[in-house]
Amino acid sequence: MNREPDRSVCFCNSNRAWGGGEQWHLNAALGLAKRGCRVFVMAGKDTPLFERVRQHPEITLCPARFSNLSFLNPLLIQACAVYFMRNRISRVVLGLPSDLKAAGLAARRAKVPGIYYRRGIAVPVKNTFLNRIAYGNFLTGLIVNSKETARLVFADNDAIMDKRKVHVMPNGLDIPAFDAAYAAAAPVFRHDGDTLVIGNAGRLTEQKGQHFLLHMSRALLDAGVRHRLIIAGDGEKKDDLARLAAELHLGDAVHFTGFLADMAPFWRSIDMFALSSLWEGFGFVLAEAQLAAKPVLAFDGNSMPEVVSHGETGLLLPLPERGESPAAVGERLAAAVRELAADPARAAALAAKGRAHCRATYDLEKRMDDLYALLWPEGAHAAS
């Protein structure tokens, strides 16, 4: 592909942690570089995104980190604007609210023709003065990962921005790479075949609801179900969850792996996947579980029904009710697990349909074609 001087894009994501948003920015940077664009990434030094991008010499990396108050720093804003102008950046894609306010302001000052914010969290946008300015004046477009995320942008202010500028773009998965890694991986947990292995992956936070899964494990043990619950991830609730597991006397029925850079062995180890999140912008890990051909269960709320069709590609349970105890929620999750375990043919059918849905909907190359067409509609045909 021939490079064109105006096909230059800078991704700004200064998040210290690694998550679905950072994976999207990495995939997008690599995907647009593959399509002949000059690609730049602004990321916090020594962050997971920075370290992963530096492995790709085709991408120009710039260490930068924006805080919630960075937009008040005129020297930082000016330096960022000069960087955009010096490198003839024609598109900027922002990752965090702090990036939107600071790098978005710098991009506007540098007269960057296209300024986009990629929002992946399905919670309402606060109706603040700064948000009204940023959403209403800085942005050429807003990229969201689900219809639910798009809806919640306008929950507190229906006029916070022009709705025609909102573009729903689900996450993409590198299906050939995923399948190859899965085929080559060895399980992290081996068992005798009589142990049901249930997996969960995500940051250990209140939002992700892993405490419900620990109560689920207790209910399964009480029902005589031999199982192992593998929870992959790290986060602020790590110690609290470890204490709860001890209080529930779960013993070796639960295993915390910590952060896994390579998830393929995890997927090879589990029989089914349970997502206990109270909300998700997209539910990226659910799509990965489907691609791994694992039966999945999750709560029926937020964006989950956009990924899982109840009874077709997985099971959806009602969200925890106000006042419902974690133990009661765990009992409901345990009942769903037993339902799947008791009917292997149905579980296999759900898994097969889930994988087919994932392959048809979340192919990374198709999503990158969509992103290129959004950023440069006049050049989309030439890049495909």
From TrEMBL:
CDD domains: GT4_GT28_WabH-like (cd03811). The keyword rRNA-binding does not apply. Residues 190-351 form the Glycosyl transferase family domain. Keywords: Glycosyltransferase, Transferase. One of its GO terms (molecular function) is glycosyltransferase activity. Residues 18-175 form the Glycosyltransferase subfamily 4-like N-terminal domain. This is Glycosyl transferase group 1. It comes from uncultured delta proteobacterium. The lineage of its organism: Bacteria, Deltaproteobacteria, environmental samples.
